[in-house]
Design goal:
CATH class: Alpha Beta
Helix content: 40-55%
CATH superfamily: Homing endonucleases
Shape: globular
Number of strands: 8
Largest sheet: 4 strands, antiparallel
Distance between the termini: 47 Å
Length: 209
């Protein structure tokens, strides 16, 4: 049908658009804290896949973290005004939050496909607003962050791990800009001072659902 340039569903799609069940336009997303956080979590543990007529957004979660699933399913709905689907993969301990829609990548300013080697500068509208910076960082840390404490050895860690050097550099610069002392290597950004760990966790509301 595609090769013959025939659209079997045009009439149905037009009726759904008139009824308001399918969007007829895809305006720029509202730039606010919700979008900043959603951008962070997608960059950390999400994916945008391109199809001939639409795109698919996916956010992945450990099935043992229902708070994460609930928070980011709601955030997707608030940002896109569309309820996402949520399902657990039967053979894995993974939950997918997803939705199909046109122009997802363009409106999020995140490219489709794999991002391991890509470069992702912090969007200017986020970088220039401290509140948005914190929400952006929260999304990244919720996706790829971890907190650990071992009082017997006075060891405290708040880490962000990712294989993308650009994202590691973003997190490093932004956290330092917020006044945190940290270390960085090719795999992670890590805060190790107890007071800084506690302050960072409070500031980002890490794992507070």
């Amino acid at each position: 049908m595609r090769a013959r340039k025939l659209d079997n569903f045009k009439q149905w799609r037009d009726e759904m658009k008139r009824a308001g069940k399918i969007k007829s336009s895809y305006p720029q997303l509202k730039r606010n804290g919700d979008l900043a956080e959603l951008t962070g979590v997608i960059l950390g543990d999400g994916h945008i896949q391109k199809f001939p007529r639409t795109e698919r957004l996916l956010i992945f979660s450990n099935a043992n973290n229902p708070g994460f699933v609930k928070r980011y399913a709601l955030l997707v709905e608030k940002v896109f005004k569309k309820k996402p689907y949520v399902y657990k993969q039967t053979d894995q301990n993974c939950v997918r939050i997803g939705m199909y829609e046109k122009n997802i990548a363009k409106r999020l300013e995140i490219p489709t496909g794999a991002r391991k080697q890509g470069t992702f500068p912090v969007p200017k509208w986020i970088f220039e607003n401290k509140t948005y910076v914190v929400r952006y960082l929260r999304g990244l840390y919720e996706a790829e962050g971890s907190e650990s404490h071992h009082p017997p050895t006075s060891t405290h860690k708040f880490s962000f791990a990712n294989r993308n050097e650009s994202l590691l550099e973003n997190v490093s610069q932004l956290m330092q800009g917020l006044g945190f002392y940290l270390s960085k290597d090719k795999l992670r950004v890590q805060i190790s001072r107890k007071a800084h760990v506690e302050r960072a966790v409070r500031l980002l509301q890490f794992r507070k659902y």
